[in-house]
Amino acid sequence: MTIREEMEAREHEILAPWASFADQSKGRARQEPQCDIRPVFQRDRDRILHSKPFRRLKDKTQVFLYPDGDHYRTRMTHTLEVSQNARTIAKALRLNEDLVEAAALGHDLGHTPFGHAGERALNRVCPEGFRHNEQSLRIVDYMCREGRGLNLTWEVRDAIVNHQTSTMPATLEGQIVRYSDKIAYIHHDMDDAIRAGVLRDEDIPAEIADVVGRTLSQRLDFFIHDIITYSSGKPLVSMSPETLAVMRKLRAFMSEEVYTNPAVKGEESKAEALVETLYSYYLQHIDLLPDILKERIGLGDSRERAVCDHISSMTDRFAVALYENLFIPRNWSVL
Question: Taking the model in full, what pTM does it have?
Answer without folding.
Answer: 0.95
